[in-house]
Structure formats: structure tokens, C-alpha cells
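Hi support team,

I submitted a single chain yesterday and got back a structure, but I'm not sure I'm reading the C-alpha cell output correctly. Could someone confirm the output below corresponds to the sequence I sent? I've pasted both exactly as they appear in my results page.

Thanks,
R.
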Amino acid sequence: MTLQVITGNHAAGYALSTAGEANRTARGTACGIYPITPQTEIVEYVARFPFSKGRVVPVESEHSAMAVSIGASANGARAFTASSANGLAYMAENIMVAGYYRLPIVMVAVNRTLGPPWNIWADQGDTLMLRDFAWLQFYCETNQEVLDTTLLAFKLAEDRRILLPVMTCMDAFIVSHTQTETDLPEQEAVDRFLPDLDLPHRMHPDEARTLGGLTWPHEDLSMRLEIDEAMKRVPEVYQECRKEFTEIFGRDPGDVIQTVDTDDAESILVASGSMATTAREVVRQRREAGEKIGLVKLKMYRPFPELALREACQSATKLAVLDRNYAAGAGGVFWQDTRAAFQGHREGLLIQNYITGLCGGDVTPAVIDDILADLSSRSEVGDPVWMGIETGEETLQ
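Hi R., thanks for writing in. Yes, this is the structure output for that exact sequence:
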């Protein structure tokens, strides 16, 4: 291990590159790359990496970047790419294709506000617009978590019980461009963690195969069911990958959800990404003051960890779901799935939505305090509460 002070983008580039290099004795690695702020540093790092057996292909668009990765993966290479915001929107057609082809591609997505109007700051709406595609999604809090989760993503995606692509997501600038101490594993350790990829359905010159042909309705339905079954296996396979990661690298990459003081908490904050850092500190301070406050950090979003979330919130009477995203007319996306997870399982649990940090707004301890004050005053659920709207009036609208 080498401890370095690096950015989240550097951590992602290092993880993608060493994972690709680990497949050098098999079919090698390949990726399509196209720049977009604030992701560009990732593909710049990858483009400079001295792969023993691999190719980095600069293309004219994000759509083509995923197309290159699809072609490489379908031929048995370890494939990956990175993008953000409107780049993901342009790539959307091929993102869908990769999932339905059951290709274990890993993509790092730097969460940025979709435009117009143009905004380059943190907002999870770009990856969450893809939430119903056949991709796993993980949201990372720190640079170390970006690196570790990206490496683990390859292991998980390539497991024959899964064979689905994975997005590793991080907040623009807050994580992507902030430097922190990060442990970089040696290539030898990455090689041990990621054995040669042997994709069972890869294209082969000795076998005639059709990729993406026309199918009958019952055949498509069967394929969708297989994807659903693979998604249901993810939590168990993730734990196996997590255990092996810890054994090889000497560091726990973290559970699919991570909790702070939830055993006896009456009110629990549910957050993801970098917001969890601030929420954790607020919970610590309020615990010292004697308040029964807890935190659930959702790392895995697809598949949604319903069972783990319900188990973590057994003592709570109120949940505050913090969303750095917004589905027009429907509130926060994490809130929608959280409500669905408890439907029919808990009577009387108040689950209130707070839309905060949207379009890159700061989520400060004062914002979290305002959220908890509003939550404690509630006896019933209301409409999603928008935080940080500068109207000259109170913050809570």
C-alpha cells in the first residue's frame, strides 16, 4: 500500500487502470474515453497509464465511449469508462445496451447537475435518471471509498452469478477534486483480487453467435427475469467480495449501508455521498448532548437495500431522507425508494423528504440542524421540503 494525498478523480483513475492491467494475461483491457467536466481528470489518468495489454480509445462523444467499452467487453476484455451529467444523457442508449447484454463494464460517474441552464456542481440527478437500467449503482462518500468501491465493482460485476455492469458515483468537486490521504494498493494485490476475466458469453472466432438480434416477447421476458434474479443475488455476492477485499487489502470497503448510532435512535437521517460526512458529525454532537439521533448512509442504491434499511431503522419513529436530487413532481428519488421499502412493514413510521444540496448547494451542519428541527416538530408527513432556497424568507419552504 502507498499512502498519497490525491483527488477523488485520481483515485478513480488509479482503480480503473490497475483493474484493467490485472487482466493482462487474459484478453487485456480497453476503454472508450471522452472528456467532460468534472470527470476529465479520470480519463486523462487512464490515457497516460502504461497498459501491458490494452487500448485506450479517444472518441468523438460519450455515446461512442460506451460503444467502445461494449465492443471490448463483448470480446472478453476488462472494459470501463467514465462520464458525468449531460455526457451520461448522451450515452444513455448504450448504457441501457450494456446492461441488457449482461456485460461487466465498470463506469465511474461524477455526479453533476444536468443542464440547461448549465451548472457543473454536484447533483445526483444524472445517474439517478438511469436508475431503472440493468446497472448496479454505488454512491461514495470519500476518495478512499471511490477507489475501493471501483475495484470491488469489477469483482462483483464479473461474478458469474451477477454479470451486470456497475456505476461507481461520487459528488462533483466535493469528492472529485478534493485531495485527501488515500491508500493506493500495489498492482500485485490488485492482481490477486481480480483474476483473469473469462466472460462466458463473449464473442469467439470459432463460434457463430448473434449479439443484439431480434427476439420474441417470451424470450425477452425470460432475459428480464434473469436480470431480476441476478439483482437479487447482489447483496450476498457483495458480502463475499467485501470479505475477500478486506483479506487482500487489509481494509474494509464498507457495507451496502453504514450506520451510526441507530440501535436506539428515535430519529434517523438517511443520506448518501458526501452529505453523510456532515450528517455523521451532527449526529455525533447531538449524541453527546443526549439526543437519540442516528444515521444511515446508503452506499448501494441499485439494487435498493430494502432489508438492510428496515433492520437498521427498527427503533426509529421518524426518518429524514436527504436527497441531492429531484424527480420532477415526485420529490427526492432516495425518498421514493425508502418509502417503498417500508410499505407494509412498519405502521406509523414518519418518513419525511428534504431536498438539499441540489444543483451544488452546500449541505452544512446548520442545514442538518434545520432538518432535524423540522423533523422533530412533525406529527405527520408533508410535501418534500426544499432546503437552501434564497428567497429572503425562512430556509424551510
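A quick pointer for reading it: The CA atoms of residues 1 and 185 lie 4 Å apart. Let us know if anything else looks off.

Best,
Support desk
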